[in-house]
Amino acid sequence: MLYLIGAGLWDEGDIPLKGIEAAKKCQKVYIERYTSLWNGNLGKIGIKAEDFKRCDMEENVQNVIKEAKEMDVAILVPGDALIATTHSTVILEAKKAGVKFEIIHASSIFSAIGETGLQIYKFGKTATIPYAETEAPYKILEQNLTIDAHTLFLLDITPDRLMTCSEGLKKLLEMEAKFGKRLLSKDTKVVVFCRAGSPEKVLKYDKISNLLDLDCTLCTIIIPGPLHFAEKEYLESL
Amino acid sequence: MLYLIGAGLWDEGDIPLKGIEAAKKCQKVYIERYTSLWNGNLGKIGIKAEDFKRCDMEENVQNVIKEAKEMDVAILVPGDALIATTHSTVILEAKKAGVKFEIIHASSIFSAIGETGLQIYKFGKTATIPYAETEAPYKILEQNLTIDAHTLFLLDITPDRLMTCSEGLKKLLEMEAKFGKRLLSKDTKVVVFCRAGSPEKVLKYDKISNLLDLDCTLCTIIIPGPLHFAEKEYLESL
After folding, report:
1. Which of A95, A94, A106, A84 is nearest to A20 (CA)?
2. At B15, is the secondary structure helix, strand, or coil?
3. Could you read off the pLDDT of A78-97 as tens digits, one per residue?
């Protein structure tokens, strides 16, 4: 049996009760920290887990599946269980091998953005701002603005570097300078939401020019579409 | 102090550990079951809660805020904490009154849709299909299709009626017949995902014509945009 368990936004307190119970009865527990950072201490809640590197996820899925044929295995994943494509692959392979599986969902940035006061129904496609040069996030912003949707930007995470809010905003301004469709400027008011679900969270609504020094990591940037008055009132209370 | 706590997708097992701990130390705990159904039994985990009707949420927010000035009060909300606008209002009123608050996030359909195999980054705006006649969900589908995004449809919940999957699909076909933009037909392949997070969940990928008899409730319907091959492979394994 294989359990794919969302570990939630921040730490061990974000794991749902049924996820803790499932992990505790497994003979083997893995934690996958590659696709996203997670600050929990599983020892605190009596769970012993091995770290799971991305190379393992991609190259050794078959080994996990083999183990799951003989015993109960859990994979804990930061945020919700099936946000990253890698994790869908695990489930697909389990199906092919006839291994039973259960998915346990948890909190995720994709619903936590409700905390910004922006209506979750009005978010369009999500973009990631990578270190590499690319037009992709700018194109997604353009698409979303044509349908009056909000755009959520996630920031790049590499094994040795976390993109800061400041870097992400500068990347957006660079894209504007390069592709020039007047989608944003230094005066555009954006939302930044960093370390969601943690006691050190940061939530701000301001002009890009006033946020360019914000060097916190684990951030998301939101460029809102047209605002409903209730959204506006909430944002202005931040 | 006011705690707004996500109770997660289905039952008490979906509440994150820190949500349970916070609710247990509160003198008063409310559960809000109007905006969405929730099947938990809080007694099982030692929490005593009062039901909270919508009229209370809108008319009596001031009373809750008053209580929260004098004691620790928790409001448990199905799904994640801040999906419904009503709950943002509670936070806004708490701020105005100078009442401290904490938001605890939980699992939600907005990230659980990752379980369908569709990439969460590619979802566009979300629509609700109401019992009332309206063009709104059809317009949102049109917008999302212009940017190649997937569309998540939530189904109407009224105090005395839950829209079934079959009713929702028929409503979509009726809108197509009425507004005629060729966005869908009986042959359109859609995803239905019902009772997410529960042992009785239903997850299907099929032509609308083959799903018209599906009378389960607590459903979502997804009309996918263009599919990536990994999405296709996953959907076809359902």
Report:
1. A106
2. coil
3. 999 998 877 888 999 999 99
Residue in chain A nearest B112 by alpha carbon: A105
pTM, entire model: 0.95
Q: CB contact, 8 Å: A120 with chain B? A: yes
What ipTM does this complex have? 0.95
Residue type, B106: A
Helical ranges in chain B per DSSP H: 17-24, 54-59, 61-70, 85-96, 109-112, 136-146, 165-179, 208-211, 229-236
- The answer to whether B103 faces chain A, any CB pair under 8 Å, is yes
In tens, the pLDDT along A110-160 reads: 999 999 999 999 999 999 999 999 999 999 999 999 999 999 999 998 878
Nearby residues of A39 by Cβ (< 8 Å), 6 or more positions away: A10, A11, A198
User: Are A105 and B6 an interchain contact pair (Cβ–Cβ within 8 Å)?
Assistant: no
Enumerate the residues of chain A whose CB falls inside 8 A of the CB of residue B83. Answer: 111, 114, 120
Query: How far, in Å, CA of B41 to CA of B48, rounded?
Result: 10
Residues on chain B touching A21 (C-beta within 8 angstroms): 13
Question: Which among B110, B123, B234 has CB closest to A92?
Answer: B234
Side chain identity, residue B219: C
A45-54 burial, b if ≥16 CB within 10 A, otherwise e? eebebeebee
pLDDT at B56: 56
Write out residues 32-91 of B within 8 Å (CB-CB) of A. 45, 79-83, 85, 87-89, 91
**Which pLDDT value is given to residue B53?**
64
